[in-house]
Amino acid sequence: MKYDPQAIETKWQETWATNGDFHTDHTSDKPKHYVLEMFPYPSGNIHMGHVRNYSLGDVVARFMRMKGKNVMHPMGWDAFGLPAENAAIKNNIHPAKWTHSNIDNMRSQLSRLGYSFDWRRELATCDKEYYRWEQLFFLKFLEKGLLYRKRQAQNWCPTCNTVLANEQVEDGLCWRCDTVVEQRDLAQWFLKITDYAEELLADLEKLKGGWPDRVISMQENWIGKSVGAEIEFKVEDSEEVIPVFTTRPDTAFGVSFMSLAPEHPMVEKLIEGKEQADDVRAFVKRITNMDRIERTSDNLEKEGIFTGAYCINPLNGTKVPVYVANFVLVDYGTGAVMAVPAHDQRDFEFARKYDLPINVVIQPEDEKLDPTTMTEAYTAPGVMVNSGDFSGLTNEEGKDKVAVWLQENTCGKKTINYRLRDWNISRQRYWGAPIPVVYCDECGIVPEKEENLPIELPLNVQTHQDGRSPLPDTPEFINCTCPKCGKPARRETDTMDTFVESSWYFARYTDAQNHEAPFTPEALNYWAPVDQYIGGVEHAILHLLYARFFTKALRDCDYLDFDEPFSNLLTQGMVLMDGSKMSKSKGNVVDPTDMIARYGADTVRLFCLFAAPPERDFEWSESGIDGSFRFVNRIWRLIEELEGELLTAAPCSSTADDCTCKEAKNIRLKEHETVKKAGDDIEQRFQFNTAIAAVMELVNELYLAKDALKGDEKGRKVLSSAISTVINLMSPFTPHLCEEIWEMLGHTDRLVHAQWPTYSEEAMVKDVLTVVVQVNGKVRARLEVPAAASKDEVEELAKNDANVLKHIEGKTIRKVIVVPGKLVNIVAN
Ligand code: ANZ
Ligand code: ZN
C-alpha cells in the first residue's frame, strides 16, 4: 500500500477531534503543563513562520502529554488591528467580515496541520465576549490609579488624519501616503507601567535560565535604569530653578553650559524679551516636528541655540549659558542637562561646534588630558581634578560624595531614572476595543458602569477612504448618557492599542467560555503561569513587557496570584528563502497549503523541525523537504516490508533473553540509547533536529538488521519492540503517520494516549568496546575487546595484535598506558 498522507492525515484529524483527545481541564490530578505559542494575527493565510512556530509548540505539547502531564495547548486570534481597516478600505469589505473570514480560513489551515489544540478554548480578541473583560480591567485600573489621561506630542499624519506609531513613520514620512509627519498634542490614555519599572527589572532575575539571555538583556535595556543625582541650577537674576538629571555628579565642576529640551517649559520664560526670542522659537518649532526615532539616533547632527539666559552651578558658583539643544529629550530625567564637554561625547561635539569651553575635571592615571587637543570626550574612570575639596578623589568615590554634599546643601539629591515610558493605549482607530469612558459637560471624564459593559464596537459604520476612524461621526455610538448624572454625554472614540488584548489572552484561555468573569481563579491559578511560551524574537520587548506588566497589575487588583506570566520562553528563528525573510512583497513565499497538498502535513512539520535548532534561522529548500519526505516514506516502507512479521509490542519490551545474536543485541542497545538521546534532546535542549537524527540512525540500523531478526520468534520480538519505539519517538513530530502505523501494528488504544518510552540502563551496557592502540603516538590498531576485560587483559590483547607487534618488534617497551574502554598507548624504543 502506498503512503497516502492526505487520507491518513484527515482520518486522524477527524478521529482526534471526535474523541476530544486534546481536551483538558483543571480538575486532573496529573501535573499541569501549559504550552502556548504566540497567537496569530488573522491576516488571511498561514505562512511558514506560523507552521514552524506551531510545530515547535506541538512537539512540546505532545511530548509532555506522553510524559504524563496534563497539557493545555490552546489557540486563538489576535484579531483587532490596522490591517483589517486597510483591507476594508482597499477591498470595500467590513473589517469584521474580513477578519472572520480570515479566521475561518486559517483555522482550517491549522487544523489540516494536525496540531493538538484544545479548540474549545479558541478565542478572537475582536469578539465582545473577549474585549468586555478588557474594558472591565480598564475600569479597575482607573480605580486603582493605574490609568490616567494626559496630553502628549504624537506623530500625526495630516493627510490620513491619524496618529501614527513610531514604527509607522519611515524617514519622517507617513508609511501609507508619504506625507511629512507632524507632532501634535493629543490627550491620550496612559497605563502606568512605570510604577512597575523596578519590579519588572528585578523579576527578570526569576526568568533567568527560562528565558533567552538576549531577551532578558533587551528588556533590561528597555527599562533602562539609571542611578544618579538631580542638581538644581538657579537661573541668573530670577527666582527660577532648573533641575538637571545626571549620572555623573562627579563631573559637576566641569559644567560649561546647560542644554534644555526644545519642549522644556522654561524655554519660553528664559527668552522672554530677549533679542534671541524669535530665532529660538523657530528652532524649537523645527526640532519638535521631528520624530522621536530621528531625535534619538546616534547619527543626529548635534544642534542648538543660545537662549540669552545664564544659570549658576551650585557647586562652584560659576555662571553658564543656557542653550536649547536638539538631542535633549523632554520626557527623560528633567528635560535639562548640565553639559560637561570634556567627559560626555554629545556635549563635546556641541562645544566644538559652538566654541564653548571644555573643562577637564577627571584625569586618567596614565596621560594628561589637554582640552585644546582632545579629539573626543574622556568617559573612562579617573581622578577628580579642578573640583574644589573633591579633587583627589577617584571619580567613583566622587559620585557619592558630591551627591551627599548636594543633599546636605539642599540643592540636589540622589535619584533613579528609568528609560521606560508610560504606555499610551489610545488609538484613533476604528477596529479596536472601545475605551469605556464618557465625557460629560457636568461631570467631566466619567467611567462607564460595570453593568453597562461591554461597550460594543458598532459594526454598522461606513469606513472612510482616508483611514480616519468612523467612530467620531457615528451618532449612535458617541451619543450616550452620563453614568453619573444621567445627562447627555459623549463617548470616548479612541480604541485600545491591540497590545492590550495580547497582554492577557494567555489568562483567558484557562477559562475561555466563561460568560460571568474573565476567568475563574481556580482555573487560572491552576494553569498559570505558562510553562512554555514560544514565539518570534521580534516580540522580545513590547509584547512580553506589556504582558508581564499586565500580570502584575491584575495581581494587584486581586485577579490572580502569580507574578510572571511566562516561566520559559523559546524564541524561534525565521524561515528564509534565498537568504532573506519570506514575504509577500519579495514574492518569495512558499505556501504551506501547497506543500501540504504535495507532501502531507507530517512531512512539512518534520522539515520545519529537522532543518535547524529552533532558535536558528533556516533556509527553505526543495531538497530539504524532499529529504523529510523520503524519511517518512522510509518508515512507512519498513513497516510494509515486515507486514505479517511484526508483533503488537510495547516500546522497549524486548528483554536481554530475546537477544540471541549480535544483531539483536545491537538493535536493543540502539533502541534504548535512542530513547535516552531523543528524550534528553527534546526535554533539556529543544534540540528537535538531533532527536530526529537519532531516530533516523535507529531506522537505518533496523533496515540492516531486519532480515537477520525476522526469522525467529525472539528476533521478531526485538524487531517489533524497536519499531514500536521508533513510532512512539516520532509521534510528536509526525503524529498522523505514527498513529496510522500504530493502528496497523494492532494497537487498539490511540497513540496520543501512549507514554513516552522508558529506557533501561541494563540494555545500554555494551559487551564489547573498541579500543585504539597507539605505538609512540601513532595509531596502529583498533581492537574489539570484551567490556569486562581488566586493564592487564586489554594490555595483553594490544601487545599481541599483529600490526602492533610489527611496530614494537626489536624495541624495548618503556611504558604502557591503558585508558579503559578507549585507548592503549605504548611507548617503545
Ligand atoms: C552630565 C554628564 C557628564 C552626563 C558626563 C554624562 C556624562 P543615561 O545613562 O542614559 O541615564 N541626560 C540627562 N537627561 C537627558 C535628556 N533628557 N536628554 C538627553 N540627555 C540627557 O544618561 C544620563 C545622562 O544623559 C545624564 O548624565 C545627562 O548627561 C544626559 F561626563 O550629565 B550627564
Ligand atoms: Zn455627567
TrEMBL record:
This protein's UniProt keywords? Aminoacyl-tRNA synthetase, ATP-binding, Cytoplasm, Ligase, Nucleotide-binding, Protein biosynthesis
Chief location of this protein within or outside the cell: cytoplasm
Q: Where is the Aminoacyl-tRNA synthetase class Ia domain?
A: 420-621
- According to the entry, every stretch annotated as the Methionyl/Valyl/Leucyl/Isoleucyl-tRNA synthetase anticodon-binding domain falls at 667-792
Positions with a binding annotation for ATP? 584
- Look up the record and give one Gene Ontology term from the biological process aspect: leucyl-tRNA aminoacylation
Which residue range or ranges hold the Leucyl-tRNA synthetase editing domain?
A: 220-406
Question: Which segments constitute the Methionyl/Leucyl tRNA synthetase domain?
Answer: 35-179
Q: Which GO terms describe its molecular function?
A: aminoacyl-tRNA deacylase activity; ATP binding; leucine-tRNA ligase activity
**InterPro entries (alphabetical):** aa-tRNA-synth_I_CS, aa-tRNA-synth_Ia, Leu-tRNA-ligase, Leu_tRNA-synth_edit, M/V/L/I-tRNA-synth_anticd-bd, Methionyl/Leucyl_tRNA_Synth, Rossmann-like_a/b/a_fold, tRNAsynth_Ia_anticodon-bd
The answer to keyword rRNA-binding applying to this record is no
- Name the GO cellular-component terms: cytosol
Which Pfam families does the protein's record reference?
Anticodon_1, tRNA-synt_1, tRNA-synt_1_2, tRNA-synt_1g
Q: Where is this motif: 'KMSKS' region?
A: 581-585
SUPFAM superfamilies (UniProt xref): Anticodon-binding domain of a subclass of class I aminoacyl-tRNA synthetases, Nucleotidylyl transferase, ValRS/IleRS/LeuRS editing domain
Spell out the NCBIfam families in the cross-references.
leuS_bact (TIGR00396)
Q: Which family does the similarity line name?
A: Belongs to the class-I aminoacyl-tRNA synthetase family.
Can you say what this protein is called? Leucine--tRNA ligase
Q: What organism does this protein naturally occur in?
A: Halodesulfovibrio marinisediminis DSM 17456
